[in-house]
Amino acid sequence: MPSMPPFSRREKIATYEKVCWPIVWEEQRINSLDGVEIALCVGRNVAIMTGKEEKQVKGPEGEVVILYFQGNGSSIPPRLPQLSAVLKALDERPYTLIAVSYRGFWTSRGRASQRGIERDAVAALNWARKTYLRPDTRLVLWGQSIGAGVATFLAASHHRQHDCLRRSEPPALILETPFVSVRSMLLALYPQRWLPYRYLGPFLRNWWDSEEALRSISNTRPNGTGRRKVLVVSAEKDELVPSEQADAIEKLCTGGGMDVSRTRVRGALHTEATFRGDGRNAVVSFLKRL
């Protein structure tokens, strides 16, 4: 729902600038695979030195580049304080977070659709790799709710296009309040056989299927080397996604030979998992271990 709440497409980065400091955000414009112009919010931690001088935080290890994929509602700018709180706690090495605004959301052009968002995700990854990635850079795909489906799709797409036996680490995954698939959510929310909704699967316009994506990236490396690291974050009081969905995601990742961590955020609703300290600390700890 790109226009919910009302006026979400008119949000400005500047509105949240002070609360985000010392995380500095800037908007970048790129073309998706089909030419649609989309927006990215790129955030980095800067340290105040003297006066107006700013210096990029540096560390002995390679940079970590995080692609963030939002949920179904609102736009990127209101999420910047939450994302900045994570980046503020990461001061041991350089981190860059790229929040992707899907087509039809915020200032991105076009109209939202699953195929279109898939193209946007691939284009954002291509831009990130061209702009930031070096041999020692770690890549992380972080998705919240429907965004978790985008992240698993992109991980599977990246896996298909690159040699899965190479020595470099595969992109890590942060799956925040994820669900298995849109079809599985229909069955979970409407288990009664006499209700018509559970039978609408064949008519869905969007089908985000993390199960299929995760099965396609199961560990195939010799001796289990280069296992994909995954963090699953669920909200204890999630009013939208049943807890069994995150349980199933965790089981799929574990069964696929991935290195899985799981955090259940006490008292959190669907959109609050990483706003709360437990969830935010889990993400920070996960990123520091990469």
UniProtKB/TrEMBL annotation:
GO terms for molecular function: palmitoyl-(protein) hydrolase activity. One of its GO terms (cellular component) is membrane. Keywords: Hydrolase. It comes from the Eukaryota. PANTHER family: ALPHA/BETA HYDROLASE DOMAIN-CONTAINING PROTEIN (PTHR12277), SUPERFAMILY HYDROLASE, PUTATIVE (AFU_ORTHOLOGUE AFUA_3G01760)-RELATED (PTHR12277:SF64). This is Alpha/beta superfamily hydrolase, putative.
